[in-house]
TrEMBL record:
Residues 1-22 form the signal peptide. It comes from the Bacteria. This is C4-dicarboxylate ABC transporter substrate-binding protein. One of its GO terms (biological process) is transmembrane transport. Keywords: Signal, Transport. InterPro entries: DctP_fam, TRAP_DctP, TRAP_DctP_sf. Belongs to the bacterial solute-binding protein 7 family. It comes from Pseudorhizobium pelagicum. Its main location: other.
Length: 337
């Protein structure tokens, strides 16, 4: 069951004022999609809440705060580090502001499909990466889920080749790797927070942006974006992140409940987002966008221009080791199929 708590200030929430579980453990859980069951993050959150409370006989009271009610990604990550927030499902660009190596997943055109991505993320590479993040930040990476395969949209013209990107003012997440991606293609990048993006597009502050179909629909971005190019340049991620201080304070049975229930939430989150990814052309066409699906040769042209530039930037910013390990894990996953 979802506790609909409408508190007047974030400070009150973060302090746990008015908690319904004064004698138990309160798990404040925030995410950044609307609080509707047709939204992958929220459907997953509801499932996690039900699962954890049942498995722990309500010794953990899960309180869900959708649509960024507890502040932006940066403030949520700081809350996780400080222990004032227990769980946040955060997008990749936001995570990299606290743990820069997360940028490695933005290496363009690295994952050819969902199956390959899941093998890499759920395998040895994903575990090693999460362990490194925990050691550096005190934030426990419980699971990786989909933020949608990212595509280009804009209000000016169709994007079929890298040359079509030149001169476009494009919004990016506040992460250097996305700036490098846009610059490699000749576009002019502008870092804008997600909450400000719909207004920036509507007002013409930027011509376009890049996101998966789930976020395009969640933010109603199609209202000011006429053209979509389904190039799939980045396999974008959400991560289920927990304060390790909170996790370590749980009883063993409660830890097992969290570990089990987050897998259930991740599965729902992935399944819903993947279904939208696979129907992107239909979904975006139905809301009035002009959708272009690049050929394999056209995507190869984008890859040849963008990947070397971004890879070099990543080697400098996150280290050549992480880049090499991701490429090796991806090749291994593809070979195992």
């Amino acid at each position: 069951m979802l506790k609909k708590l409408f508190l007047t200030t974030t400070a009150l929430v973060m302090l746990g004022v008015g908690s319904a579980a004064a004698d138990g453990k309160v798990l404040k859980y925030t995410h950044y999609q609307p609080g509707r069951e047709d939204q992958p993050k929220h459907a997953a959150a509801l499932a996690f809440e039900t699962c954890v409370e049942k498995a722990t006989s309500n010794s953990i009271d899960v309180q869900i705060f959708p649509a960024g009610q507890l502040g932006n990604a940066t403030s949520a990550l700081e809350g996780l580090k400080l222990g004032s927030l227990e769980l946040a499902v955060v997008h990749d660009g936001g995570i990299s502001s606290v743990y820069r190596p997360f940028d490695v997943f933005a290496l363009p055109y690295i994952f050819p499909d969902h199956e390959t991505a899941y093998k890499v993320l759920d395998g040895d590479f994903g575990k090693e990466f999460g362990d490194a993040m925990l050691a550096e930040t005190g934030i426990r990476l419980l699971a990786y889920a989909d933020n949608g395969i990212r595509h280009f949209t804009n209000s000016k013209h169709p994007i079929k080749t890298p040359d079509d990107m030149k001169g476009l003012k494009m919004r990016v997440q506040p992460a250097p790797v996305f700036i490098s991606l846009m610059e490699s293609l000749g576009a002019s990048p502008s870092a804008i927070d997600w909450a400000e993006l719909p207004a920036a597009l509507a007002q013409g502050t930027v011509d376009g942006q890049e996101n998966g179909v789930t976020n395009i629909m969640a933010g109603s971005l199609y209202q000011s974006q006429k053209y979509a190019s389904l190039d799939g340049h980045v396999y974008s991620l959400h991560a289920y992140l927990m304060s390790d201080a909170f996790y370590q304070g749980l009883a063993d049975a409660e830890k097992r409940a969290v570990d089990t229930c987050v897998v259930e939430a991740r599965t729902i989150h992935r399944d819903m987002t993947r279904a939208q990814d696979l129907s992107a052309e239909k979904v975006l066409t139905e809301v009035g966008m002009e959708v272009y699906v690049p050929t394999a040769d056209e995507i190869a042209a984008f890859r040849s221009v963008a990947q070397p530039v971004v890879e070099k930037q990543l080697e400098e910013s996150v280290g050549a080791e992480w880049v090499a390990k991701l490429k090796e894990a991806t090749a291994s996953a593809q070979g195992a199929q």
